[in-house]
Amino acid sequence: MTGENGSLAGETVANFRVDGARLWDSLMEMARIGPGIAGGNNRQTLTDADAQGRALFQTWCEAAGLTMGVDQMGTMFATRPGEDPDALPVYIGSHLDTQPTGGKYDGVLGVLGRLEVIRSLNDLGIRTKHPIVLTNWTNEEGARFAPAMLASGVFAGVLDLDYAYARQDLEGLTFGDELARIGWRGDEPVGARKMHACYELHIEQGPILEAEGRDIGVVTHGQGLWWLEFTLTGREAHTGSTPMDMRVNAGLAMARILEMVQEVAIAHQPGAVGGVGQMKFSPNSRNVLPGKVIFTVDIRSPEQAKLDAMRAAIETRAPGICAELGVDCDIEAVGHFDPVTFTPELVENVRQAAGELGYSHMDIISGAGHDACWTARVAPTTMIFCPCKDGLSHNEAEDITPEWARAGADVLMHAVLKSAVVL
User: Fold this and answer.
1) Cβ pair 134, 100 in contact under 8 A
2) How far is 393 from 206, CA to CA, in rounded Å?
3) Which of 71, 85, 235, 285 is the least buried, fewest Cβ under 10 Å from its Cβ?
4) Where does the pLDDT of residue 336 fall: very low under 50, low under 70, confident under 90, or very high at 90 and above?
């Protein structure tokens, strides 16, 4: 595999592939931890299942000869040393936490695909100038503790550590206490690490690549996002004995706001989306009008002007809707990032790697938020997408093929080698 000077011949490197069967076996083994009820996973962040998944991942990393570090947000950094002690590392990371009814691949492919890259480099005896660091970011999903991408947000300096520790789930448990409880609060200061480059492999979470018959998505941009948490306060009352004209119905106000969000998103087409995925009624009884409703509006666009305009329209119209019904309205922004342009040099590395390996590919914009959206603020960053069946994600029916998984990991390996520099 090496020439007379110990370096790898270019034509030999071009033939290298990951072990797709081993990658698939790892995905299936991780999926046994925190099983869902319909074939997917429920491995929400900082739960006992999350702790078990982390422990398995650490075992695999140590078996691959990696050195594990953990920061104060619980993010795991497994390092493969480079030959130059002064060279900054190339980071390859994603997340192991899932939605309550999540799939087996969202985030997990990114982490275990990266582990397979390291295993394959070890098998092939490939040495690099730059170290390579495999990362598992804490609380990417934001399903239990809002906002999403919490640990990478603190790492990038856009969120405060104390703010992150104080975030509460729906049961009132705090992020900081739960991180300590499961034993994964490290001592390493968050954000102290410097990156030469950062790559994130992920499933598309949309239908475009499959519909276009492409193996690889070369991610050029990411949509911006606002999560607006609404707290509507009305008056609890009996649903049967309270006249319609004497109700202060927080549930009705919520319904009208949901319809308004739909109207706002449609009015800003193309390239804008909006909806509601989480809500909590109190007291949540069949025959009691809710005294309080809490829900989160999710709006996204790759265009800053549209994103800002949608937020302004929603925050302007919602209080008026509530006032007509006598309902108090409080709005808090609990999650945000601006549209992202990924580093052109790294994007080109991905594009070249896909072409050199013979995989069909296309440029694509990420509709979902990812940790890469925050690391792009502090280091050269890009993403690689593989298709998912029918575009389904955040759903236990989420599915990919072994061939798609391998293609994504192959492209990741070759793109990383362009940045890490083969010796």
Assistant:
1) no
2) 7
3) 85
4) confident
DSSP state of 323: H
Question: What's this model's pTM, rounded to 2 decimal places?
Answer: 0.84
DSSP β-bridge partners for residue 35: 41
Distances (CA, A) of 17 to 12, 20, 135, 412: 11, 8, 21, 10
**Which tokens belong to 16?**
């290298």
Per the listing, tokens 């108090």 go with 328
For residues 408 and 369, what is the distance between their CA atoms, to the nearest angstrom?
19
What are φ and ψ of residue 67, in 5° steps? Answer: -100, 125
Phi, psi of 363, rounded to the nearest 5 degrees: -70, 145
- Cα 322–Cα 325–Cα 328 angle in degrees, nearest 5: 45
H/E element, 154: helix 150-155
CA distances from 43 to 49, 223, 392 (A): 5, 26, 18
- The model's pLDDT over 119-134, given as tens digits with 9 standing for 90+, comes to 999 999 999 999 999 9
Q: Is 16 helix (H, G, I), strand (E, B) or coil?
A: coil
At residue 393, what are phi and psi to the nearest 5 degrees? -155, 170
Model confidence over 362-389: pLDDT tens digits?
Answer: 999 998 889 999 999 999 999 999 999 9
Contact indicator for 364, 220 with CB cutoff of 8 Å: yes
What does residue 8 show for φ and ψ, rounded to 5 degrees?
-85, 135
